[in-house]
Amino acid sequence: MHHRYDVIVVGAGGAGLMSALYAAKGGVSVACISKLYPTRSHTGAAQGGIGAALGNIQEDHWEWHMFDTIKGGDYLTDQDAAEVFSKDIIEVVYELEHMGLPFSRTPEGKIAQRKFGGHTRDFGKAAVERSCYAKDRTGHMILQTLYQQNVKAGTLFFNEFHVTDLIIEDGRCRGVVAYDLATGELHTFHAKAVILAAGGYGRVFKITSNALTLTGDLMSIYYRKGLPLQDMEFYQFHPTGLAKLGILVTEGIRGEGGILRNSNGERFMERYAPTIKDLAPRDIVARSMTTEIREGRGVGKDKDAIHIDLTHLPREVIEGKLAEITDLARTYLGQDPVKDLVMVQPTAHYAMGGIPTDLNGLCLSDGNGGSIEGLYAAGEQACVSLHGANRLGTNSLGDLVVFGRRAGRYAAEYAKQVEYAEMPENAEAESRRVFDDLRAASGKDNAAAIRKELQETMMRNVGIFRNGPDMAKQVEIIKELKTRYKNVGVSDTNARYNSELVEALELGFMLDCAEAMASSAVNRTESRGAHDREDFHQRDDVNWLKHTMAYRDMNNPGNVLIGYKDVALKGFTRSFEPKPRVY
Predict the structure, then answer these.
(1) pLDDT tens digits for 270-318?
(2) Whether 423 contacts 5, CB under 8 Å
(3) Which residues form the active site (predicted)?
(4) Binding residues for FAD
(5) CA–CA–CA angle 89, 92, 94 (5° rounding)
């Protein structure tokens, strides 16, 4: 089946919905393709808030937010992206408010703000209230608000469609191919511009806050075209996921005064970050927790978790501002935050790397400014390098709406200037081959077994603490798993609602993302942000102040070629001492 729209958006989370909305506002026809019904997208799991220097509680400035973003990213952040973001997010938050997003309020009726890890005033002197929130359901409220606005704007949705290929010829994107779960048919979507916003790939890890759908599909498809993935070695582990489950416990729980305690009842973050303690950036808190566990001060039956203590807070704060987390802890752990210490442990949470883009979302084809005409990306799938080596808390929701808005606007502007490029006659051929191979394979391996081994070994070898031998071992493990994957078949050969087929397809995508990640990680011989090596303890700005660009070796699949891209520096030095530009 063939469709034609000016702009196609892949993904219906915060970035996809924001992109679609602003493309529609640009006066072009827009269709949004999603694995899920839009309001079930993973953005709904984001709880804590969206950071913006509104200054509603105390003095704040976008320059301070910019500095925190750059410092949080351990100086791998592109500083032009941080500047654009820190300015634009203020306007975008007010836009969301005017769209009807029900932010929590101050007594005066202003948007409420609270403290969040890594957010400071005066370039790091003290914590600041910067996170705008809707209780602890901020992401969910963003999804609901943007979906309603898209319905109003006339965006057409194709739900439960899985994109299987990007159609790129002569340096221009011409559309996508997608599998309709309900009918089993392949659909070709012809477009002037395509925006990729389908989220991350956290399911490559055993313990993760990511939804089952986050398997890096479009990152893998882009990579298979011989195009680069940027900074894949940097993967953030959120300090607080519910023990054993990985379900996210918002950083807002610490912003409201929650305290991390070890088995001795000690507030151990005073040792690791004496100034802002539990509100330190996520990589520092996650490593501190893991160190406590390694040294025998963990809690729980297996001593592999840490307590978060809210018992000193008023009940109305816990059940009001942290209602969702309170319910999750009671339901899944049988622990009541009002009176009990809640067990948490670090959980794989967010990809800093992804498909490289410029400030307007245009996808880059190399580290020298080359691009793919008509192809844009936004959100966790993209890497404009706002987050550098470690994303600052609240900047994920901000990234979705700021760069989603920019991608939508520029894609619409581009679509109005060009005609449709001709689609190849065999646009669906590659997707049909992949499905036919999965249906025809008769190997003894199954997708579930390979997926389990991938997730366990990635957690063990490319997790919070890393070293060269373990990561090199993981590179070889992934090669072996990819060889086994070639023999994976499916027992269900039906076309309609074939979840076994979809999961096998997604495993292939996950293996590609893991391959690029592990190879990039073993190649970077320093510690920076979320990439913490036990064999290279120091950050090395002389040799490693550069972005990694990982390419699939098209002549020898299974090998990864590494290139580099310069970091955009604009006003802040490489040291931790702030030397801001004069504005």
Answers:
(1) 999 988 889 887 788 988 999 999 999 999 999 999 999 999 999 999 9
(2) no
(3) 282 (proton acceptor)
(4) 11-16, 34-49, 217, 380, 396-397
(5) 115
What pLDDT, in 10s, does the model give residues 179-212?
999 999 999 999 999 999 999 999 999 999 999 9
Nearest Cα neighbor of 453 from 373, 507, 506, 534 is 507
Tell me the two tokens of residue 185. 């048919």
Task: Give the active site residues.
Answer: 282
User: Helix count (H) and strand count (E) of the chain?
Assistant: 16, 22
Collapsed DSSP state (helix, strand, coil) of residue 405: helix
Whole-angstrom distance, CA of residue 204 vs CA of residue 463: 11
Domain residue extents for the chain: 239-346, 429-566
Residue 581's pLDDT band (cuts 50, 70, 90): very low
Task: Look at residue 573 in the predicted model and tell me its pLDDT.
Answer: 61
Q: Tell me which fold the domain 239-346 belongs to.
A: Flavocytochrome C3; Chain A, domain 1 (3.90.700)
Q: Domain 429-566 classified CATH 2.40.50.140?
A: no
Closest by CA position to 511, among listed 443, 434, 451: 451
Alpha carbon distance 101, 143 (integer Å): 9
CA distance 445 to 438: 12
